[in-house]
């Protein structure tokens, strides 16, 4: 029998970027908020003098323990899914702050085209341009409606950046400049800028949550500038220069005295009756005790996979059925196309050990619908960039194709090219298809005996055509930059879950304008339970050509506003 605790105003499932923003905004408004986090407590002091690549980058200190809970994967419904036993394609964070602790800090705004992709594509090219099995849909919100919340997130984090030269063409008008100046321009970045300008393209400095200068945000949180140490992705920032929930929103929520965090608390079910959630059931993993936590409002703020899994386990919302196309929970899982790129080898040395997670330069000439797709066999595009994230010694060993994989020649090529190679990459959009989805695995279970989430996904011809296109463009840029030899990656094979690609998973609890085609409305409020809100990239109906965190943050700010409206009103679905 589970122990029942006193009711709270709001209970959060997960305390990362989404949960932290919700907690900050609701507690400032006077609500009592409880955050349940299955991992452990974290603070900046945990990372002092801990530039340990082996521990964090290769042994995944900040990640979920896959022996207790993982995902299963299959490329199609004809094969049996198998569990991911070791980390590869993506990294699942664990602990206070979630993936917001170990991210790189690249903070983009999605394009107006992203939010209205189906209607804008149909308007320009006709409905026949969209493949029959492609299930892209409009979000139910526009860029202009979300823009003020992008601005709030950027000011919260102190994003360092400069205007996109294609702002007018793309429709990405800003209400305010970035709060801090762009980061330093490394020599390789200048080469990229000079080369692409000669090609008639429009480079700009990558928007960065690694502070270019000391900054105090509107809530009074002060942080130091980035030291360009190169330990961002997979690491916590010892300087607090990289914006993350632990150094921004969580302290503000705690200061109100209305935010309680319970770590080591694994939420296993949302409790509900009559179309309303009554609270959650969780297990204290330190004691093994089951606890019922009643709440007026339940907010799911966990990672993409867990948001879908928890709703499916709780039998809240209709599971998606790919055969009929009906149902919504698990629908439109999407990833990212990162195989279109190239590495150039030069006759000059660069200092590539220094860097930061979002130190880079990029362009959007081939992103969204900024270029004509009439004669192309794919939709959307991708952001192309050169970034200098810090070439740590264990994970980085660039050698040209044809180099022996061991021995004297391998060692010589490794030493020669470590500081003489630059990579230009394309981050391509991943569009949703009818047969890409999430559901509960019928065979494999977690340490509590609950079914794991199962991914059914593979790259499509859309993705292969996009990878060829972006790979060719990256190769052309490196030629203009003066590379003596270039290895380009243009061919995209079947999706392989083994090598790391990105942690940009999206979909499963998607937003839209109708309960027939979406799980949540434009406030991220569930159609089937109006006191349940679901935050995160799980709401994206398809993925973009950018990193998702900026959009996750903007939607979280907007949803906090919606929750306050709901709490002050008489309930029901928000309009």
Round the Cα radius of gyration to an integer and report it: 23 Å
Count of discrete structural domains: 1
Name given to the CATH homologous superfamily: FAD/NAD(P)-binding domain
Give the rounded overall mean pLDDT. Answer: 97
The CATH class assignment is Alpha Beta
**In angstroms, what separates the terminal alpha carbons?**
39 Å
CATH architecture: 3-Layer(bba) Sandwich
Segments where pLDDT lies below 50 for 5+ residues?
none
User: In total, how many beta strands?
Assistant: 22
Assembly state: single chain
Largest sheet: 8 strands, mixed
Judged by helices, strands and strand pairing, the structural class is alpha/beta
What is the number of helical segments per DSSP (H or I, 4+ residues)? 12
Strand proportion? 15-25%
CATH topology: FAD/NAD(P)-binding domain
Principal-axis shape: globular
The helix fraction, in percent, is 10-25%
Keywords: FAD, Flavoprotein, Oxidoreductase
Protein name: GMC family oxidoreductase
Pfam family, one: GMC_oxred_C
Family: Belongs to the GMC oxidoreductase family.
Structure explained in plain terms:
The protein has helices at residues 17-28, 53-58, 112-115, 117-125, 143-157, 167-170, 187-198, 249-255, 304-313, 408-417, 461-481, 549-568, and strands at 3-4, 8-13, 33-36, 71-74, 82-83, 204-205, 215-216, 222-223, 259-262, 265-273, 276-284, 289-300, 331-334, 341-345, 360-363, 382-387, 421-428, 437-445, 451-456, 485-489, 506-508, 532-534. The chain has 575 residues and is of the alpha/beta class. It has one domain (3-68, 93-164, 237-568): FAD/NAD(P)-binding domain, CATH 3.50.50.60. Strands 1, 2, 3, 9, 10, 11, 12 and 22 form an eight-stranded mixed beta sheet that branches. Strands 6-15-16-17-14-20 form a six-stranded antiparallel beta sheet. A four-stranded mixed beta sheet has the order 5-4-19-18, with helices on one face. A hairpin with a 2-residue loop joins strand 10 and strand 11. The chain is globular and about 70 Å long. Keywords: FAD, Flavoprotein, Oxidoreductase.
């Amino acid at each position: 029998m589970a122990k029942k605790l006193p009711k709270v105003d709001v209970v959060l499932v997960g305390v990362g970027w989404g949960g932290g923003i919700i907690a900050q905004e609701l507690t400032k408004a006077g609500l009592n908020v409880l955050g349940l986090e299955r991992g452990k407590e974290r603070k900046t002091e945990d990372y002092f003098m801990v530039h340990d690549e082996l521990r964090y980058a290769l042994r995944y200190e900040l990640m979920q323990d896959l022996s207790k809970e993982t995902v299963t994967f299959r490329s199609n419904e004809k094969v049996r899914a198998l569990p991911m036993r070791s980390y590869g394609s993506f990294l699942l964070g664990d602990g206070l702050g979630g993936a917001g602790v170990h991210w790189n800090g690249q903070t983009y705004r999605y394009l107006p085209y992203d939010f209205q992709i189906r209607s804008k594509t149909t308007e320009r090219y006709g409905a026949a341009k969209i493949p029959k099995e492609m299930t892209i849909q409009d979000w139910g919100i526009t860029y202009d409606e979300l823009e003020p919340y992008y601005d709030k997130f950027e000011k919260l984090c102190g994003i360092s950046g400069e205007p996109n030269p294609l702002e007018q063409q793309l429709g990405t008008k800003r209400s305010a400049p970035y709060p801090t100046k762009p980061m330093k321009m490394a020599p390789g970045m200048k080469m990229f800028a000079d080369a692409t300008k000669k090609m008639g393209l429009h480079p700009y400095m990558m928007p960065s949550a690694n502070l270019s200068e000391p900054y105090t945000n509107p809530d009074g949180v002060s942080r130091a500038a980035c030291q360009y140490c190169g330990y961002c992705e997979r690491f916590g920032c010892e300087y607090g220069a990289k914006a993350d929930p632990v150094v921004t929103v969580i302290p503000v929520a705690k200061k109100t005295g209305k935010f309680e965090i319970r770590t080591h608390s694994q939420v296993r079910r949302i409790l509900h009756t009559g179309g309303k959630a009554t609270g959650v059931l969780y297990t204290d993993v330190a004691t093994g005790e089951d606890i019922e936590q009643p709440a007026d409002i339940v907010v799911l703020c966990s990672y993409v996979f867990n948001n879908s899994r928890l709703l499916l386990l709780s039998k809240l919302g209709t599971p998606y059925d790919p055969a009929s196309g009906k149902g919504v929970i698990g629908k439109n899982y999407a990833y990212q196309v990162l195989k279109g790129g190239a590495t150039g080898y030069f006759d000059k040395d660069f200092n590539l050990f220094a860097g930061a997670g979002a130190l880079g330069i990029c362009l959007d000439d081939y992103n969204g619908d900024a270029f004509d797709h009439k004669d192309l066999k794919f939709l959307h595009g991708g952001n192309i960039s050169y970034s200098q994230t810090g070439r740590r010694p264990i994970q980085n060993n660039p050698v040209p194709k044809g180099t022996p994989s061991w021995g004297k020649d391998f060692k010589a090529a490794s030493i020669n090219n470590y500081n003489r190679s630059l990579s230009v990459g394309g981050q391509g959009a991943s569009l949703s298809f009818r047969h890409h989805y999430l559901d509960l695995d019928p065979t494999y279970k977690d340490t509590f005996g609950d079914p794991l989430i199962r991914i059914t996904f593979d790259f499509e011809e859309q993705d292969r055509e996009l990878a060829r296109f972006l790979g060719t463009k990256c190769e052309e840029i490196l030629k203009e930059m003066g590379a003596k030899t270039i290895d380009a990656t243009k061919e995209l094979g079947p999706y392989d879950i083994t090598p790391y690609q990105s942690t940009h998973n999206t979909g499963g609890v998607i937003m839209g304008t109708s309960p027939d085609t979406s799980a949540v409305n434009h406030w991220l409020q569930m159609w089937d339970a109006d006191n349940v809100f679901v935050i995160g990239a799980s709401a994206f109906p398809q993925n973009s050509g950018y990193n998702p965190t900026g959009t996750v943050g903007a939607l979280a700010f907007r949803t906090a506003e919606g929750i306050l409206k709901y709490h002050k009103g008489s309930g029901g679905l928000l309009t």
